[in-house]
Amino acid sequence: TETRRNLYENAKVCETVATMCKKIYEQTDLQVVILIEEYSQFCLLKNYLGVPFEFAHGTVSQDAKKTLPEEYWKSDNAAIVDRFNQGKSRILIGTSAISTGVDIQPTGVLFYLQGGKSEIQLKQGIGRGTRPVGPKQLKVFDFIVAGSPTLERHAKYRNEIYETITDLPIKVY
Question: What is the value of pTM for the model shown?
Answer without folding.
Answer: 0.89
